[in-house]
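Per your request, structure below.
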């Protein structure tokens, strides 16, 4: 075989292989891209400590900001506050912004900042007439971070809140104090 014939055979084989590959690519079904998360909604519990020990049922939701890895989120909780001498109602409503980073589809970390309002009512447990009632309320603001794990739709979230509470009350001066909380929730992504 001459050099020219050898070059012609190699060129013909290469051309037919490229054409076959091109046809294979066109015949292969395309895999649709994974749908992007638009938000989430769910519920759970929060345990917090400030002037009192607080526990509440919470609902939470988030909406993705298009084009950036940020979510606008909100959470509301209703439960109770207590100390060794009494207790009462606890209400907290916060909103904020959150960023998420996922190492895999099933495990993510998140962090953000929340701001909102909380209200507590306290009555002495040994006061049968309810005359010893205190009202506590104020702004809460601070960072929140945690873990988000689970499947494509149903997720478990564990968050640590490190809020500053502008504590105003009917029995003491206004002051800033630390409020640390742990939130556990189940959310449904959409």
């Amino acid at each position: 075989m001459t050099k020219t014939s050898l070059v012609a055979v190699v060129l013909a084989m290469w051309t037919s292989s490229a054409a076959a590959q091109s046809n294979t690519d066109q015949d292969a079904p395309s895999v649709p891209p994974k749908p992007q998360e638009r938000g989430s909604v769910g519920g759970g519990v929060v345990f917090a400590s400030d002037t009192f020990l607080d526990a509440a049922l919470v609902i939470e939701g988030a909406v993705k900001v298009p084009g950036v890895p940020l979510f606008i989120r909100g959470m509301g909780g209703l439960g109770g506050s207590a100390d060794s001498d009494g207790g009462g109602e606890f209400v907290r409503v916060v909103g904020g912004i959150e960023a998420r980073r996922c190492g895999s589809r099933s495990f993510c970390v998140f962090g953000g900042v929340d701001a909102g309002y909380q209200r507590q009512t306290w009555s002495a447990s040994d006061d049968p007439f309810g005359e010893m009632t205190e009202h506590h309320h104020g702004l809460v603001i601070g960072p929140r971070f945690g873990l988000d794990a689970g499947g494509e739709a149903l997720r478990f979230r564990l968050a640590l809140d490190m809020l500053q509470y502008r504590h105003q009350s009917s029995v003491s001066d206004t002051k800033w104090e630390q409020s640390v909380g742990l939130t556990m929730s189940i959310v449904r992504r959409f």
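The CA atoms of residues 8 and 83 lie 91 Å apart.

Regards,
D.
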